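Support request, please re-run this one:
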Amino acid sequence: MKKAPRNNKVTILLNDAEQRALDRFCERYHVDNRSKLIRETLIRAILKQMDEDNPTLF
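Re-run finished. Output below.
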């Protein structure tokens, strides 16, 4: 599958505790690409919520 270029930038700010948690997670699980981790985690949460919000027939 061909990858779409990433041309759109999103910037987030973390407080000290959030940054420490991210640092610990990345160190513990040997995460080399934080952008990929955050992007995939964010999109997974969005898709899950959208799936839960879809109306069902039953």
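The helical segments are 16-28, 34-53. The radius of gyration is 15 Å.
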